[in-house]
Amino acid sequence: MNLITQLQTDSLSATTRRYFLKECMAGLGAIWFSSEAGKLFGKSGYTSKNANPLAAKHPHFPPKAKRIIFLHMAGAPSQLDLFDYKPELFRLDGKDCPPEFLEGQRFAFISGVPSLLAPRHKFNPAGKSGQMISEILPHFREIIDEVCFIKSMQTDQFNHAPAQLLLHTGNANLGNASMGSWITYGLGTENQNLPGFMVLVSGGKNPSAGKSAWSSGFLPSVYQGVQCRSEGDPILYLNNPSQIDRRSRRQILDTIDEINRRHYEEVGDPETLTRISQYEMTYRLQMHATDALDIEKEPEYIHNSYGTNPGKESFANNCLLARRLVERGVRYVQLYDWGWDHHGNGQNTIDEGLARKCKEIDRPIAALIQDLKQRGLLDDTLVVWGGEFGRTPMRELRGGVASDTFGRDHHKEAFTIWMAGAGVKGGYTYGQTDPFGFFVEENPVHVRDLQATILHALGLDSHHLSFPYQGLDQRLTGVGETPHVIEDLFA
Amino acid sequence: MLLHPTPLGRCSRPFKHSLAATPVLVGLAFLTACTGPKEPDSLSLPETISFNEHVRPILTQNCTACHGGVKKAGEVSFIYQEEALGYSQSGKRVIAPNHPNRSELYRRITSQNPDERMPPAAHGDPLSDLDIQILKKWIQQGANWEEHWAYQKPQAPAVPLPTNDTWSRNDIDRFVLTEIKKHGLAPNPEADKTSLLRRLTLDLTGLPPSIEETEAFISDNTPHAYEAQVDRLLASPHFGERWAVPWLDLARYADTAGYEKDSYRDMWPYRDWVIRALNADMPFDQFTLSQLAGDLLPNKTADDLLATAYHRNTKTNVEGGTDDEEFLLASVIDRSNTVWQGWMGTTFGCVQCHSHPYDPFSQQSYFEFAAFLNNSQDHDTRDEFPKFSYAHDPAKREELFQMQEDLRKVNLAYTRPYQDLSQNTDWKPLTYQSAQSTQDVVLSIERDKAGRELLQTGPNTPRGTVHTIEASSPIDSFTALRVDALMPLDASLEIPGPPFVLSFIEIFYENESGEEVSVQFERAISDEANTRTSPSESLEKENKNGWKAYPRQHYDRWAVFVTKEPIHLKERKNVRIVLHNLAGHDGAEQPVLRRFRLSVDDQSNWQALSQSLQIVEAEAAREKLNRDIKNIESTAVPIIRERETDFSRVTNIFIRGDWLAKGDRVSPAVPAILLSEPDQKPTDRIEMAKWLVSDENPLTARFTVNRHWEQLFGIGIVETLEDFGSAGLPPSNQALLDHLALKFQGDLKWSTKALLKEIVMSATYRQSATISEEKRNKDPRNIYLSRGPRQRLTAEMVRDNALKVSGLLSTKQFGKPVMPYQPDKVWRSVYNKEAWETSEGEDRYRRAVYTYWKRSATYPSFVTFDAPSRDVCTPRRIATNTPLQALVTLNDPVYFECAEALAQKAIEAHPESPSDAIRYAHKQALLKEPSTEDLESLLDLYHKSEGSEANSGTVSKTSLAIVNNALLNLDAFLTK
Amino acid sequence: MQKTRRNYILATGSASLIAIVIWMLATSFTQGSESSPWSTFLGGFHPLVLHIPIGVVIVIFARSLWNLRTRAASDNRFLWLLAALSSSASFASGYFLGNEGGYDSELLNRHLWSAAAFTAFAWISFILEVLPASRSAKALLLSLNLVSVSLAGHYGGLMVHGDPFAAAPWLNDPQRYAILPEIGEEVALYQDIIDPILQAKCVSCHGPAKRKGSLRLDTYAHIRVGGKNGGVLTGNDPTRSTLLTVTKLPLHDDQHMPPKGKPQLNEVEQAAISHWIANGSSVELVLPSADVPSSFQAMLVPGYRLLPDPKLEAERLAKEKEKQLLAIARRAELQSLINERPPELASCFTFADQHGDTLHFTPITQKGQLTSDLLETLLPLINECHTIDLSDLTLPDSLFAMLAQSESLVDLNLSRTQLTELALSSLSVSPNLERLNLFATKLSAQWLTSAQGFQSLRTLYIGQNGISREHLDSVRTHFPNTEVIGDLYLEATADEDVSDTYEDTEGSK
Hints:
Chain B is of the alpha+beta class. In chain B, helix 2 packs across helix 5 (129-140), helix 20 crosses helix 22 (752-760) and helix 28 packs across helix 29 (914-926). In chain C, helix 9 packs across helix 12.
């Protein structure tokens, strides 16, 4: 039993023993005591001697979703060009930016007095709700009635790496546990033959925050995000060396098992028993992970629907993989697509650059939502889409020098994300920004509130999901005051 | 009996009376029951209540969350003595010594009224009766307060002498045996020689012993056989390589700068210094002084200056658009937290935003400590200035170091005369006629408070702005022009102003024949002697660099431009001055002169000075030194240098931890609680370092002993290495810890090797690691040390062990980081062209400590075995046991290559007999013969995998490699 | 007779003179007109002096009662003089105190006139005592005195100490406001709707008896005054007035009002308060019932319950408690049944949360080893499950017959299983089946359009069964109140070049 589980078990059983003894003395009767005591003294579930840290655990309260797919557009997509429709911007395109937006504000690149920039593509209504969205998302239109927008998101950071860390680990500096680690720490995972938290990257580069965005931080490394790769081993070191085929791998594992058991008889260290079960797990992991990550097995119409590109790294492949993993009970699938940092330099322009990136994700996302729905998975899978912050209504004026291309700078005051599945109200918009899309006007949602809402959807209370480290009960949503769960999103 | 109702009719008269008395008795019992908690059996209530042992855990667990350093509900706090024994907001006395009934604390914990009872229902259950009695008795006994154990200087504990103790070899054993006996256990017998030597060699050098060394030890029956091995291993060059790793975790050492780009920087000379210092058994106090204040030591050496690279392990954020001041302050805060975490195991980081929730540290004391470290020259810039060239050839190190020190002195000697001249020159300000700038930047003529004219730009100052000023000189000739760059109005020492770089300066005037001619300058001098780029570069037209204040301006700055020969102006004395600001960077505020003044002087001694002997000699010396330094092969390592006194920074409290909201200014100081004699308070970095390792400091020796203990036994005497505060776990054997701490500081004079020897020589360490049923239940995690340590190898040892056993290991030491095999596409940092090229030759099989350490993509097999990313100081690696670890040792090509190499060695020794070859391989790996059953299993595996090549007479390498793949994954192989 | 007539004239003259003087004083009084230091000083004596006349009058009354029994007449001249003088002194000091202002004008007015009357009657009684007067006149004046003094006392007390009766238990019984009183055509928003809400749900802790956070909501004046941390009404903005915002906080937030466990405000009541605040939160606001916004029209319906009927409430709680205990017992029993199975099979069963008895059967890790006869052994337990996932498994025949009877079955997933249409039909009687997943089960459209029953079915998944669009519509008509989800995928359009192109863009930072 490793250190941390033991530490938790001791503190858990110490407090819970006192709590339960008192509780049942207060007259809940022997029945309660026997079942809870059973759980307490290692008969089944959490505190059994060789507890598998990833065993499925009960959520704090009945959840709305069992699994989550997070689609993160690294670089921060421009909400004003896609979803947050602002007629004022069209009217004042090119005019100087009103001064009250500038003083007291700190920007990554803008200095001096920039001008307002209207979206470069037309908007038109979509779905029953008539929500105005950009024309460069043609397929997304078909699933808009499943989607709920939050247009009043806010964050504290306006640089990529710190902002991504704040969104995914609750803290702008490095060294903290990511959301996927927290959720697998809180709920374990349903399929013991696969990792509980898997990460898929596309767009050519890792997100700016690097691997820390899916690190287990101070939580035990068993909760680390496992990155899937499109070339070579789908999971690092999954495949056997060429000299060893599956049959001899089985024989090797049996031999190791025999010798280790004899060693255990001699020395009696429980860690040896845990190592025996972990080696057994690798055999099943190899079989199940290879199968799960092999998209060739999908029928033709699915490949066409997603627009996949087998054998190469692509967002479409990752969306199909996400559905296959979620279908097999993986708890948290995190996708990163890099290339959304449209400052206007080189390829990263708000007009063609944004349109090109939208084409890469439009079809796969629409196909993913429909595929989940037709399989009955959408009801208990939460899909979240978004970036680490927004982009400014003003045109980028890098170092005070006007450039001929169209770009927007980083903007932490207001941005848009959307959610689907898990009983989220379809065709609904939560929160509004001012006519220029600069400040949030109604129902602000801080990144911490979003994290608390996601945990809530999975049946976890962000206050109770904590881990003792450096003298504090660390939490995903920070140790300050409890954030505000937005219940309004759920039907 | 009384409570059993019996039919009245049949009983005798006296019985009836007693029955009549029943209701009365029942009533009485009922009354006593509900008046107050019943007295627990006095057995469990200790005689005298000690605050630290009994009371503080109750308070920390139930109260300090709301009544602590941060949240003081009702102005009640149990952190500081005066507050705990003082009055609450409601005016009631929280704790009245000797009078529990008059103490509000006691009334609240025993009150039946749910609204008043503490802890409130929402936060937890009422205190247990025992806890209540403890608090009551403590108050009755005068409520004497004790500071937390870790903040009291260790007192030498009496060494216990357990009865008929034949087991103990030294004092450690006596302390341990007392604890073992107290829990009704008995120590294990000594481990067998092979296992003991394997454990000892791995613990001290990180490598397994060879077969020869094992056999030599087994056959050596002299009484000091074991001690000889200990001394041999302590003297081994591999000692430093193994023990550097936990220190590099604390120092957060990496080969890259961190954050988004996370690009490479030369830090490896510092890693080599740590290894050499540990091998030379440098006393820990000197080890501390060199790293914390090496640059300030009176007669410092090259190594002392190199050691200060310890601080520069902080991350540098060069992501586009980041604010260098913000991330410099982040580094200063990280350095301060790391000193506390790496030397004293205290979570000082909490105190950045508010006073400590559990321990007595105020927010002010946090920033006073950060002030020690907030005056270094580095400023989160891409070129990692300041750097120090460290010679590769050890013989040349001191020489190169001395040259660089001399160069700094020469620069001083060169600039000091000009600075003196400039200071006492009566500069005549020019009168400006017109001023304008390019790129529609507004340049206006204004006056400062003293009424002196100056030039001020508007808010928008893009990169490449060129200022042109038409002015007239009050004097008809001039030999030098002075430019004063003034701090912008809204900037202050608290939040410094934007940067400026004067790329090129030109002055035009009308000569005798009426043409407009530009002035020829001889040299430029600024107010700072040792600068990143020399001010004279402002005279070179093509060079964008020049005189600058970068990346932030903290003070008004000045520079003087000396003309070749005096310039005579015609009667209207007009000059046109053009200032080019061509340098740029990817931040928001571009480096442009925003607020400046121009003045001239006509003294001839500017030119005279240039011919003076002192200047000429200084210039010559400078040329020679620069040349000599260049032709010694060296690596430039980021180090710490203090800013020159008249450019020093100030430190302020951050209101709620926000660097933009500055509270009042503070000067360097150490928290008072850790100072017994307030008079000798440390005031600078060198005194702080001395305090850290003086016997004033109750924490350093204990923390250092504890972390060495954890490396050997798997669990520290204080299990939470990172938190010695009241929220951490209490020591399992404080007497032992204090004894070792005082000995380490005293007799052993901070010698790490002597400390390790003291521990490994103990019988406690030498016990066998077998775990009996009873011990598994009574002491599952071996806290009472009733058996020898048994733990999985660290990430580095897993690799080194496999390489050594299979004969692939290269023992080459030191040098640039190497790149053993790693699957591709692991490195995908944004905007970073660096790629992982697997090293060739012996560099591919170097020890793990030399592996290239990239923060945002740590070597994957290390991460899987719990290695930290080293973004932050990590005192303890929490071991885990996961299937992904199994995948590494089963399938990683590095480990399969070891299996094949071991097979090759085994076949060379026993070409025909598979069973002999297997026994050979087993002995190489585990240093002992396989048991018959194990040999049988391995042989069975060998024959199964032979398949077609069966009985070809020779041992098949592929099959033996498969057997070795199993061998190198055995639990016994992966643990020590 | 001469003497008696003279006495009579003298009495009426002096009495009327006194009455006129007092009357003039009373009418000329205006609250808070001017307050010189002297008047504040003298006003300060009012509380001291005013109790004396009350005491004296009571003594006189007691003596007269006593005398009734003994038939003896008593000489009360001195007492009446004392009463008159002290009442005049208290009237004067009261007059000055009144000048300070800050009192409820209506109450002060009543107090003023009753005090004036009392002073006048005291003088008259004294005069009657001095001059020979009939016993009946004296008795009459005594009773007038008693009435006026008690009135003056009552109003004075009301002004300073508030209405003692307000704390009376029969008044404070919240149930009194359980049902909203009948509202006529005209709706006085505060009196008819807002005040009853506050009385029913807030005043028990924010009223005269208990002033939590020193905030009272029982009267309009007190609402305006607000509590310890400031006013509860900010401008006409419902989103910033804490009176309303604290009721909208999430339940676990400790600022949430009414506190957990107490009856909460529902949307309708919140809408009413929001409307009231938005329209100036004034007392005079009256609007015809037709103009009441739809958001709280429901409150106009006679018999609208503000508080649940205690009897019903107690029953509901009891039922809930009993249900909870049953659930705990059922969970414990199910848990012990599960524990009897080998661990890998036991882990197929999980509860929905940490306390309830909703059980799910979702084998994922064990899908490979779950043969149909192993499944058979688990049937009794599966029968107790709410959600059953049998996808990708080979199913025993007895399964459907059993599932048809199961009460707890709500969500059944049979995707990618081989099942016969006959077996499926037996499921049609399942009482609570709401969600049925038949994705990729090679079902024919005929069966779907002919299947009977499934009356509680809400969602049906029939994708990847090769069912054409037209058949899908016919299935939809066959299952009118069920959402039927068929194939959902995007057609591959020729022009889309779907390959992703990433040359290594030297993007910006």
